[in-house]
Write a structure and sequence with these properties.
This protein has one helix and no strands. The protein has 58 residues and is mainly alpha-helical.
């Protein structure tokens, strides 16, 4: 049995308002900044610990 699903070509799906687009962009920028700060923090902590962080027993 085959069930056909009609897709209407005039529907574009979900259309965001300008306020929603602005909020999405702000969230994306905030997440990018947070990720960059976290990466820099890990790098700085590694530098502060020095090369001893690599000399550990396996």
């Amino acid at each position: 049995m085959v069930i056909a699903v009609d897709k209407q070509p005039d529907q574009e799906g979900i259309v965001l308002t300008p306020e929603q687009k602005r909020a999405r962009r702000q969230r994306s920028v905030a997440l990018a900044i947070l990720l960059a700060v976290l990466a820099i923090l890990f790098y700085v902590v590694t530098l502060v610990k020095g090369p001893g962080v690599l000399n550990r027993p396996l």
